[in-house]
Amino acid sequence: MTPLILASRSPRRRQLLAHLGLPFRVVIPAVEEELAPAATGRPEELAEALALAKAEAVAGEQGEGIVIAADTIVVDGDTILGKPADSSEAAAMLRRLRGKTHRVITGLAVVDAGSGQRAASHVVTAVRMRPYSDAEIAAYVARGDPLDKAGAYAIQDQQFHPVAAYDGCYCNVVGLPLKALDILLRRAGLDITPDSLQGLPPECRGCPIVLE
């Protein structure tokens, strides 16, 4: 079987990819990830470009294997929210998103390091935040959890539970839309059997996926 490589430093993406039941190894890409706030163009294009840059960087180093990469951004109106620089910025992001609906966009890329074949796409989920209080924000930020997350929150956080509802793929908001990834892997020639998708988290099994 062709080696599968995850180009990511995210523990959440590692956990999600493990649900597919396929052996893989992790290689951290030497690519700048914090480009979103200063970038121009459509957020969807940005997310795909960042994911592809990561995948191609690792593919160039490895020489063989199918490389997977992703980049997740939060978009509020016309503003892209990346990872907060500090606790103050994290609190400001959470206040900004409170009680509103925003978009979470994950760019996905798959590169065959041997042939150079590549495929990229993105998934969008609409997320509505609950009206959490300033005190809840302060407690969440004090834990330090928001600092490595786009938009300063994790949908799966059981203490803060910031999300009231979402429309689309749950795993996309966590950082790796697994059904979309399955489609891209098939395009790259890696046929994942239906049985491997039985290990998906419950929230992902019925999610609608339409790749651009």
How would you summarize the topology of this molecule?
Blueprint (H helix, E strand, L loop, with lengths): L3 E3 L4 H8 L6 E2 L16 H20 L3 E11 L2 E3 L5 H11 L3 E12 L5 E12 L4 H9 L20 E5 L2 H5 L3 H10 L14 H4 L7
Parallel strand pairs: 1-2, 1-3
Antiparallel strand pairs: 3-4, 3-5, 5-6, 6-7
Question: Could you characterize the architecture of this molecule?
Answer:
With 212 residues, this protein is α/β, with parallel strands linked by helices. It has a single domain, classed as Maf protein (Alpha-Beta Complex), CATH 3.90.950.10. It is built from 7 helices and 7 strands. Strands 1, 2, 3, 4, 5, 6 and 7 form a 7-stranded mixed β-sheet that branches. A hairpin with a 5-residue loop joins strand 5 and strand 6. The radius of gyration is 17 Å and the shape is elongated. About 2% of the residues have low confidence.
